[in-house]
Design brief:
Strand content: 15-25%
Number of strands: 8
Oligomer: single chain
Shape: globular
Helix content: 25-40%
Number of helices: 8
Structural class: alpha/beta
Distance between the termini: 19 Å
Amino acid sequence: MILPAGYSDDARALWNAATALNRAAAAVSPAAAALPPMLFFTDPDRTLRPWETAARLPAGSAVIYRAFGASDAVDTGHRLREATADRRVKLLVGLDPDLAEAIDADGLHLPESAVEQAVRIRSDRPDWILTAAWHGLSPPPEDLNALILSPVFPAGGASAGKPALGVTAFEQHVKAARLPVYALGGVTPDNAATLARTRACGLSAVSAIQSAFR
């Protein structure tokens, strides 16, 4: 999909890089073809009104809503669902299956520490998209649809203190994984295209997507 008029150059750079990655990955792995090429990760501190960004995302992309136990989680979740439901934008919830059920989400995103829950969740909700954070160490369960590997580049937020993998190491992890892999961490409109040869199935970001899709 080509973005219509009204989107910024940064939005086009991110979306073009994401869709190019997804097309290349799908040519090798049919499982990648069914996945969103771009994931917008919310963050309580950095994305204060995430539904506004969600309402600007192109069809085929996805939001990963991380509530982290916020008192207004259900209200924010409903706002995100309202912003995405009619736009063909998927909505995944971080870790909390009850919240995902409450807002009629399309799936769940698991932190690496909770990845063992994937087997049970897949059994309970075979229709859900399941993703999980991964740092290239222990093999992840195959009940997942995709992995999110970070940080690829120097990043902020929770990844600020972690060393960046760099494109070469990221590519090696992607090739070793048995599942489609997304890039996360420091991905920007300026460096997104450098991921082209990595076989990633798409890209993920927090601030870069929020800034680009205003």
